[in-house]
Amino acid sequence: MHTLLSVWPLAAGVVAVLGAGLISDRALYNRQLRRLAAAQQHLVHPADLTADAQELLARAQLAMTAVLDSKVHREKWLDTQRNEAVFPRQEWAIAHDLRSYSRVARKGQRPPHTADNATLAELLTSRGRVLATSLHGIERRVEALEAYASQVAEADARYAEVREIERLAAGSDELLDLLARTATDDLAVTEIDVLTDEAAAVASTFTKALESAKQAAAAALPLQGAA
Q: Which among 46, 178, 209, 222 has most CB atoms closer than 10 A?
């Protein structure tokens, strides 16, 4: 699970930071500081992002978490290996690009001191267009993840219905016996046929929902190297 209030570690491995008081060798301490500085490039802090960037990253993380927590994912109706392999790469790419966007956006909040009004207005307008285009491109990726999560939720709902129908149908023999005692065989067969048809309809809907989820996954999670 991810949270917007934490530091997002998005690089493989763990950086160990040793306090200066525990390191007697000054050269070793300096090397640790250099390693920490290098590691900062592979970390995205909430403070690194503007408010709109934080919101987009949170949306992406919520969508990915919803997929990973779904029944159809946990029970391997979806391509679980692909989800678990691609999601970290997608999360890092989105966070990295949002950090870059935020850095440029914040620089734009400090206009140059020496520029006439017309030039300044033109520069700010141009910067605004570039920033909006950049943010929109990232948002499209987030929306694709949200569409995938929505399709997975639909598949989950249909899957739950299939399981409930199966549970009810498991007692169909007992139900048939009860019906046979109080009605004709034709009525009993009709009632059981209704249950069978309902189960088939729900199963068909689940199959379609699952297929839609897989198609949404293909759109949201391009293959490694195709991105």
A: 209
pLDDT tens for residues 171-195? 666 666 665 565 555 554 554 455 5
Q: Answer yes or no: do 50 and 60 share one domain.
A: yes
Span of 27-31, 78-82, 97-101, 182-186 with lowest mean pLDDT: 182-186
Q: Do both 1 and 57 map to the same domain?
A: no
CA angle 159, 62, 104 (to 5 degrees): 150
d(CA 15, CA 20): 15
CA dihedral (44, 46, 49, 54) in degrees, to 10, reads 110
- Is residue 24 domain-shared with residue 131, that is, in the same domain? no
Question: Do 196 and 177 reside in the same domain of the chain?
Answer: yes
End-to-end Cα spacing for the chain: 25
Could you give the count of Cα atoms lying within 13 Å of 97 in the half-sphere of its Cβ?
20
Do 11 and 91 touch, CB atoms closer than 8 A? no
The residue range of the domain holding 165 is 45-220
Whole-structure pTM value: 0.64
What is the three-class DSSP state of 206? helix
Token pair 């950049």: residue: 134
Instruction: Say yes or no: 82 and 51 in one domain.
Output: yes
Residues 124 and 13 in one domain: no
- Into how many domains does the chain fold? 2
